[in-house]
Specification:
- There is one protein chain.
- The chain is an alpha+beta fold and 89 residues long.
- The protein has a single domain, classed as Glutaredoxin (3-Layer(aba) Sandwich).
- Helix content is 44%, strand content 24%.
- The chain has 3 helices and 4 strands.
- Strand 1, helix 1 and strand 2 form a beta-alpha-beta unit.
Length: 89
């Protein structure tokens, strides 16, 4: 999981611990990578990230899901669950 954020994004700050807790509790094999979009402008552009927070979810090197701005923890859990259990159970 790649988490794009900025230093001034309050939603990002509130969402990040919830996402990390979700991964820790239910999807421990998913790696969490945080990228500051202000500091890595070219990288953000390469991934076509133009809003924060943006979450990209990859399985086996392929992007499966992309969510931006209004992100529900329950929705992220549901999106990850099926491919995660197919790969790791």
């Amino acid at each position: 999981m790649v988490y794009f954020t900025t230093s001034g994004c309050n939603v990002c700050k509130a969402l990040k611990p919830k996402i990390k807790q979700l991964l820790s509790d239910h999807f421990s094999k998913v790696e969490f990578i945080e990228i500051n979009a202000e500091e890595h402008i070219e990288l953000s552009a390469d991934f076509s990230v133009f809003a924060v927070p943006t979450i990209l979810i990859y399985f086996n090197g392929t992007e499966h899901y992309r969510k931006s701005r209004y992100i529900s923890i329950q929705e992220i859990s549901t999106l990850i669950s099926r491919p995660y259990h197919l790969l790791f159970d």
